[in-house]
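Listing 4. Sequential folding, example run.
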Amino acid sequence: MGKTADGKRDSIVANPDSLFNTKFGYYDNFEGDILYMRAAEMYLIQAEAYAEQGNEAMAGQMLSELLKNRYSEDPSISSATADEVRIQRRIELWGEGFGLFDCKRTNRPIKRGYVGTNFQAAYRFNADIQNQAFVLQIPLPEINENNMISASEQNPYPPILKPWSIDNDYYNNADGSVSQ
């Protein structure tokens, strides 16, 4: 594992076949601390709430508090829109599993297909967040052990999304259809 100029560990380990997020520890057996929440997430939640309420000055103040831990210079932000907060959320919480749920929560599409993308070809798609592919199935042990849920109530198996390419600018619609 490499080290940065200031002696800290790199947050990613790359090899020819894959890219792993090791933001909170790396062990040969991939065991590490599991963080359920952290202070940065709380700042971002508060900043987004302020921005959504139209209080962009307070949203900027919350972002400034967060960013002063990231940068050596004072990142004074006088105001921030909800979109600006969401960009910082994507940066700060990268690889921590928030992306899909943030898209679902804000009803924003997933866009992985675009010129310059680094997503692997199989995962390079653009899709409406309401597409059935993003409705999680109920775990089978839950259905088997819970007499209040029957197998007929299982969410449908997700459809395969049509991948994007430069030649085929596909978009997977909410109803399962594909458009270009």
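-- end of first protein; second protein begins --
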Amino acid sequence: MPVLSLPASKNVFVSEHYPDRNYSIADNDVLFLGRFMNIGDSFRSFLQFDLKQLTKKYSANIEIESAYLQIFMYRNEIKSGTIEINIYRLLDPWNQQLLTWNNQVAFHNIPEQTFIIPSEWEGLMFIELSSLVKKWFKGAIPNYGIILKGDEDKNCLSGIRSTNYRDPDTHPQLKILYKASDKISY
């Protein structure tokens, strides 16, 4: 089955400690999430993927079988146990060069997916997002992207590679498995 890899078209983090600062600078090769040192020192990461590439590059007659968010966990300050990372869909458009903690966009109150990070673990991760990506592709809901939220109640900062990192294999991507179809059905 063919696989399409879509790199993030937007990716940036926001910091509660610096609530009016934007972190979209080109040399910033990480996206942080979770709490760092103290209360009021949390980070959240925002991603968006341009699904128009899927219909432009291929035809409108494809059916998405499954979709996975690929991220590379490179920093993990979870001292022991595990934490949950929640992925929520965003409800409004946003500008990567202007986004800050104080103006971050609204997100759905129910996570699209939750995944577990064990202490000190680093490496490539694949998180299933098929239902959300199919809805975006079909046009059932607008594609404004997602927010990744770590644990904001205890010190357990995590970092994933951004699209500014030198190795594109570690960039946030959507991996979409699809098949050609004469009739689309979801």
